Write a sequence for this structure.
């Protein structure tokens, strides 16, 4: 039995935002509130936030991607208990990586790249030509691994799709419609106007890297484009997943001031961007950055717990501190400390920066009730 005492519990799904205790037993949440029962292991979480384990809805994991991050080490140390691999594998490579996924303590789901080999060819760009997709093998993957695969992934950057323009995106959406799944589209430096891209997407499809500033973006002349507002009204999901360069500080500032916040907050971490200042770094740093940009902390916790869990169809198991659910829990200590946030790595031309005053230090992570990470200071 484990008792987290006196922490500020933030559980958006259950509308809890108060100092309370969390009792864990046999890997499950047993009680949230004023716990009078004695526990063998009681930890004082005073001054810390206690939240559901974070869900990183967009990252790339090793060995699914050669440039993937070491999943458990990076995720558990940043409060993440469930990670979504965003298209590192395709129908020809996903099956061979399933043993890793199945054996990981970290909860893992995936988007399947429309390209058969996924991102395994990097640094050579993947083949986005629909004529080369193996629709039969893609369908077989979704039939066989329906509980593991969330949807299709396509990178629609101009250097990838080339003269094909938006034809691959139209084909991906058409295939997703047949399969009954959603599409996640990487929109950085698109081959045409943002308005055309968004017009292709359906309710539930995900536009990731929403605040990117390469090519046609979601803002123009200091305002959020009408086509973007209309897409949200139709149910298109906007995800902030910034990595090293899929983010423009001025775009984000303009959109957030106008109230155009993400539907989901993720990271797009790889081995190239994990722990890299002043960019995404990890999910805890993403939260700190968007808090500095003006989004309330409690809202940000919702955007990386309840919101992705709902989109994944998994609110019955993850994304909250619901009694009876598996004890996936994160504890963060707010620290008043100056920190630079930037939209490109140091040394990159055109980098924009802002100074923040608060960071959130991950001090404890529970996965299924096990302490998979604990800071020596906690």
């Amino acid at each position: 039995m484990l008792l987290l005492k006196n922490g500020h519990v933030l559980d958006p799904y259950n509308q809890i935002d108060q100092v309370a205790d969390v009792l864990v037993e046999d890997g499950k949440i047993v009680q949230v509130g004023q716990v009078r029962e004695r526990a063998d292991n009681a930890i004082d979480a005073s001054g810390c936030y206690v939240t559901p384990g974070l869900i990183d809805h967009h990252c790339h994991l090793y060995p699914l991607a050669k440039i993937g991050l070491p999943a458990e080490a990076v995720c558990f140390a940043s409060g993440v208990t469930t990670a979504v691999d965003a298209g590192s594998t395709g129908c020809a490579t996903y099956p061979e990586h399933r043993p890793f996924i199945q054996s990981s303590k970290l909860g893992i789901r995936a988007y399947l790249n429309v390209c058969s080999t996924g991102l395994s060819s990097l640094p050579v760009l993947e083949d986005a030509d629909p004529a080369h997709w193996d629709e039969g093998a893609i369908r077989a993957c979704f039939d066989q691994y329906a509980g593991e695969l969330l949807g299709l992934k396509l990178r629609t950057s101009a250097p990838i799709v080339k003269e094909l323009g938006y034809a691959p995106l139209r084909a991906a959406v058409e295939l997703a419609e047949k399969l009954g799944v959603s599409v996640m589209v990487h929109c950085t430096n698109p081959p045409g106007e943002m308005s055309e891209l968004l017009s292709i997407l359906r309710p539930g499809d995900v536009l990731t890297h929403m605040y990117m500033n390469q090519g046609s973006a979601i803002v123009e002349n200091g305002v959020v484009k009408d086509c973007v507002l209309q897409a949200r009204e139709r149910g298109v999901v906007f995800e902030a997943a910034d990595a090293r360069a899929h983010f423009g500080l001025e775009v984000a500032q303009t959109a957030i001031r106008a109230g155009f916040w993400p539907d989901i907050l993720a990271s797009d971490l790889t081995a190239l961007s994990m722990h890299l200042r002043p960019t995404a770094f990890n999910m805890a740093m993403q939260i700190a950055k968007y808090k500095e940009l003006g989004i309330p902390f409690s809202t940000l916790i919702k955007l990386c717990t309840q919101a992705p869990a709902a989109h994944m169809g998994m609110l019955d198991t993850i994304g909250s501190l619901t009694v009876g659910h598996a004890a996936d829990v994160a504890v963060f200590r707010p620290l008043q400390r100056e920190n630079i946030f930037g939209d490109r790595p140091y040394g990159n031309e055109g980098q924009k920066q802002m100074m923040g005053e608060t960071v959130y230090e991950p001090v404890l992570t529970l996965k299924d009730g096990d302490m998979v990470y604990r800071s020596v200071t906690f």
